[in-house]
Recover the amino acids of this structure.
């Protein structure tokens, strides 16, 4: 009897994988920009999780091409939004250093192509990949901000960068790894029924949708500063109980997207937007300030002139 079907290491050619990564990262970057609760910097960065996960499931010999594709995607997204080229190059380098560091360390601990189906793999991915690796990216990226953006604050930029990457890796990276692991398991099962294997995942996502709607409401303007946000807690607890690793990670992502969208919807966006690219300076802003100063000075001189004339007339 024929044995179980083995899993091929590469299902698509390298150029196709690089192109797919490029398109996916550009879309993920735009989604991160839209789902940021402030306009000064991205508070949720999905490309961090996607980039790290792709490196973890890819052969080391493919990494250089994939890194070039990721850097090109970062440049394309930032240049489309009119951001400074030199700062964008620095940000692309920081993102690449973070992904390579995380993939190298996590790969040494739990091996190639992790499925996140054991406590050891989950702990290694969350602590090393999601918490330690972003330290490298946040430090390098914040240094670029300090050099390229006048008036930037290290103590606000670094935590924002780190938290955004942590969220992107935990929420997006876990879904990618668990999904690839689920697909590998399906292909290894010679007589597996795709519909049967999809049912637990579908049930998990279906249960997550009401909690995502609830999260959107309680984390938005309607929730305000109340304690209604704790109503979403049962959804998070149940996320790890349905659908296996793939269903649990997808359910967590759906609920978190509802909460993030609610915060974005219910909070006014203020401040100049530079996100993961260079600061968008308003053209002529300095000239406008100088004109205001001159206008204010002219106003003071106009107010002084009638008084001086009255004093002159009194003397005469």
């Amino acid at each position: 009897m024929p044995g179980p079907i083995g899993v091929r290491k590469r299902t698509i050619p390298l150029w196709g994988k690089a192109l797919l990564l490029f398109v996916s990262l550009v879309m993920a970057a735009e989604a991160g920009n839209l789902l940021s609760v402030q306009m000064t910097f991205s508070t949720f960065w999905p490309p961090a999780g996607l980039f790290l996960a792709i490196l973890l499931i890819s052969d080391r010999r493919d990494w250089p091409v994939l890194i070039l594709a990721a850097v090109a995607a970062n440049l394309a997204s930032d240049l489309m939004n009119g951001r400074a080229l030199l700062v964008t190059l620095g940000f692309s380098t920081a993102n690449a250093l973070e992904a390579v560091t995380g993939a190298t360390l996590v790969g040494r601990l739990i091996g190639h192509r992790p499925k996140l189906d054991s406590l050891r793999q989950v702990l290694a991915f969350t602590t090393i990949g999601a918490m330690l690796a972003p330290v490298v990216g946040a430090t390098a990226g914040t240094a670029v901000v300090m050099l390229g953006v006048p008036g930037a604050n290290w103590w606000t930029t670094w935590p924002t960068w780190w938290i955004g990457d942590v969220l992107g890796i935990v929420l997006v990276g876990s879904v990618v790894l668990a999904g690839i692991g689920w697909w590998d398991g399906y292909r290894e099962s010679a007589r597996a029924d795709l519909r049967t294997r999809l049912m637990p995942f579908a049930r998990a996502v279906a249960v997550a949708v009401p909690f995502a709607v609830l999260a959107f409401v309680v984390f938005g303007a309607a929730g305000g500063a109340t304690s209604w946000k704790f109503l979403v807690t049962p959804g998070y607890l149940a996320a790890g109980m349905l659908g296996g690793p793939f269903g649990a990670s997808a359910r967590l992502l759906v609920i978190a997207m509802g909460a993030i969208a609610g915060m974005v919807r219910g909070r006014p966006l203020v401040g100049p937007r530079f996100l993961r690219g260079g600061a968008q300076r308003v053209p002529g802003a300095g000239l406008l300030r100088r004109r205001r100063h001159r206008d204010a000075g002219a106003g003071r001189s106009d107010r002084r002139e009638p008084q001086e004339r009255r004093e002159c007339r009194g003397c005469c």
